[in-house]
Design a protein that fits this description.
The complex is a heterodimer of chains A (347) and B (302). In chain A, strands 1-2 form a two-stranded antiparallel sheet. The longest helix of chain A is centred in the middle third of the chain and has 27 residues, at 207-233. Chain A has helices at residues 3-12, 14-32, 36-61, 70-87, 91-113, 118-138, 140-143, 162-183, 185-195, 197-202, 207-233, 243-256, 262-277, 299-317, 322-346, and strands at residues 149-150, 235-236. In chain A, 75% of the residues lie in helices and 1% in strands. Residues 341-347 of chain A have low confidence and may be disordered. Chain B is globular, with a radius of gyration of 19 Å. In chain B, helix 1 runs antiparallel to helix 8 and helix 1 (13-44) packs across helix 9 (232-245). The chains are: A mainly alpha (347), B mainly alpha (302).
Chain lengths: 347, 302
């Protein structure tokens, strides 16, 4: 099928209708929930991480697992914030330029990475995120990331939440772009390389080239998410590069459903909810404190411990992520009548 | 904070010698870790990214046994090796064996889950003990080698590493289980046909690899201060060593480990230590991989 007709078919399909309903519901949320914390921080952060996790997922879609994506999140965040701060350009332009800066550096790192096996690639990307922190500290007079600085806001974060809607629009466009890439010739090549690199090469796919393309696209969206992240928190410092920020998109994609479009989005909703709302229940964990005398607040380590166990369980028992449960549920609902007929026939 | 990269004001030959010796001693600890990682990879074709966390657990177990039971830390290494081997077997049995034969990326995901589990359990249990060291009866004693001095602890650590490595070579080359391990490593299907219980070989391999990590943790804790999140960097250093020395090769890991330890300490001495020390490891690693994606001594293919 031609790409054009394929895309037209995609737009006519039921999935587009469902996606539109979801977007409309999300857009209606701030009208119902008016809390500046929940809309301005939690919901917006979900959208930002949906882009970030989708960018990681696109890379994994081409068979490359990055353990250092926080480097690109941070580059995008710092580039967009510094551009807006130093040159006085509108922050929204800085945001997009931040994505391009991140993609440019991603291109250079990608050149080194595309020929590597999965575990080497994971190590090199992780190593790069450590090197970049060293550079940031050494040239702190340029970047100012050790103490950090406030970012220039694009739009207000209070009612009627213009920043939330701006983020929503950017998220929808970004994810739509990622979907179109996944459904295109590029996406097919990525998938072929992931499934069997040798066969892909034999079919005439230049594996290194397509991996590099995936790397550049992925780092562009990671940088864009970084700029939005700095906008959401209204502050940026070197902590954006920390390892947990590299692991989060991986955890989100895997828990949601690897190599699917919905997976990283659902993963982002789950993980951001956990990180935002579970701390509120920390006080109920106080009875556990005597068991661990050294720890002032048992909440954070227990949550992270739970997250680790959850991740392992998902990889073992739900290799296609939480999304596969939804699909199963949907199929079950649709096929129920025929099932009952079958069982009746047997009985 | 220093703004510019400056050379230390005084680089002396005795200082370089000192850095060299320290590098050899640190290299020995990394060799143990890298050999364990390499053994597991060689036999099982599996990369355990949570290997450095086993080092951390080994260090804390040695600390507990030494301070609570009053055991000599060098005897406590055996306890650490045994208990970390059990933990390693648990990891293999309950996590890694479940995803065998599935996508390669799953190993990374499982390892990441294990890293979260180990680091946060350790934080819950031991966060009070930040930057502790295992008390050693030889602490503070040192011997002069030419112009420089080296602590007895470092010398004993090197000796222990040599003993363990000799034992490992004996195990793989001279025993029946070693033969089974080598057979499994070369051709898993053929090994199965020859009546080797591959799952048990895997379990045993993981136990040995984890025990090596436990021993390296004990030695690390005697020579360096440690804390619950210490594990990530040693994993990466072990990785850099394996990449230098080639995947799956034990002699390669020994050479790589020594080279790496010496390079790390010498550069940190020349550059003036601090922030660049860890970054240099990665710059080296990335440079090697760009030039030769399979590592310096790595064979083509894997």
């Amino acid at each position: 099928m031609e790409y054009g007709t394929k895309i037209l078919a995609l737009f006519r399909s039921k999935k587009t209708i469902y996606a539109s309903i979801v977007i409309a519901l999300v857009a209606a949320l701030p009208v119902v929930v008016r809390s500046p914390f929940i809309v301005g921080q939690v919901f917006t952060l979900m959208l930002v991480f949906a882009i970030y996790a989708s960018s990681w997922n696109l890379l994994a879609y081409s068979g490359q697992g990055s353990l250092g994506h926080a480097a690109f999140l941070g580059i995008g965040g710092f580039a967009s914030s510094l551009l807006a701060l130093r040159t006085g350009m509108p922050p929204i332009v800085g945001l997009i330029l931040g994505g391009f800066v991140s993609a440019a550096i991603g291109f250079l790192i990608g050149l080194a990475c595309v020929r590597l096996k999965a575990w080497f690639l994971a190590m090199v990307t992780f190593g790069f995120s450590v090197i970049i922190v060293t550079i940031m500290i050494q040239y702190d007079s340029v970047f100012g990331g050790v103490v950090g600085f406030p970012t220039i806001p694009i739009a207000s974060q209070v009612f009627p939440f213009p920043f939330f809607y701006a983020t929503l629009a950017i998220t929808v466009v970004s994810i739509l772009a990622i979907v179109l890439i996944m459904k295109s010739k590029f996406g097919l090549a990525f998938k072929a390389i992931r499934e069997n690199e040798l066969e892909a090469k034999m079919s005439g796919i230049n594996a290194a080239k397509y991996r590099l393309i995936a790397f550049v696209i992925s780092t562009f969206f990671a940088g864009l998410a970084g700029g939005l992240y700095a906008q959401t928190t209204l502050f940026i410092q070197n902590s954006i590069f920390e390892a947990s920020n590299s692991f989060l998109p991986l955890i989100m994609s895997v828990i949601g459903g690897l190599s699917t479009i919905e997976g990283p989005i659902i993963g982002s909703v789950i993980i951001v909810s956990i990180n935002s709302f579970l701390p509120l229940t920390d006080k109920y964990l106080q009875p556990l404190s005597p068991l661990f005398p050294g720890v002032s607040n048992v909440g954070p380590p227990l949550r992270l411990l739970g997250l680790g166990i959850f991740l392992i369980l998902v990889v073992i028992f739900l290799p296609k992520g939480v999304i596969s449960l939804l699909h199963k549920g949907y199929d079950y609902l649709r096929s129920e009548p025929t099932k009952t007929v079958k069982s009746n026939g047997k009985a | 904070m220093r703004k510019y990269l400056k050379l230390s004001p005084m680089i002396t030959s005795s200082g370089l010698e000192q850095a060299f010796l320290f590098g050899v001693a640190n290299g020995c600890i990394y060799i143990l870790l890298a050999t364990g990682l390499n053994l597991i990879f060689g036999v099982m074709k599996l990369v355990n990214f949570a290997h450095g966390q086993l080092l951390m657990v080994g260090a804390f177990i040695t600390y507990e046994v030494t301070t609570l039971a009053g055991l000599n830390p060098y005897l406590a290494i055996l306890v650490a090796m045994g208990s970390v081997a059990l933990i390693g077997m648990g990891m293999e049995k309950f996590a890694f064996s479940r995803i065998r034969g599935t996508e390669k990326l799953n190993e990374i995901f499982i390892s990441l889950g294990l890293i979260y589990v180990f680091e946060n359990l350790a934080t819950l249990l031991w966060v009070n003990n930040y930057n502790i060291r295992i008390p050693s009866p030889l602490g503070g004693l040192s011997v002069a080698v030419g112009e420089v001095t080296i602590g007895y602890d470092r010398l004993v650590a090197m000796g222990i590493v040599i003993v363990i490595l000799v034992g490992l070579v004996f195990l793989t080359k001279r025993t029946k289980i070693g033969l089974a391990m080598r057979a499994t490593s070369q051709k898993t299907d053929a090994a199965k046909l020859m009546g080797i219980n591959v799952d048990r070989v895997y379990l045993f391999t993981f136990a040995i690899g984890a025990a090596l990590a436990g021993a390296s943790g004990a030695l690390y804790g005697i020579l360096n201060p440690f804390y619950p999140t210490i594990g990530a960097l040693p994993t990466i250093k072990a990785f850099a060593i394996i990449i230098l020395g080639g995947l799956g090769s034990i002699p390669g890991a020994v050479v790589g480990g020594l080279l790496y330890g010496i390079a790390e300490n010498m550069t940190s001495y020349i550059v003036g230590g601090g922030t660049w020390q860890d970054a240099i490891a990665f710059i080296l690693l990335i440079a090697v991989l760009v030039v030769k994606p399979t590592g310096i001594f790595g064979e083509k293919g894997e």
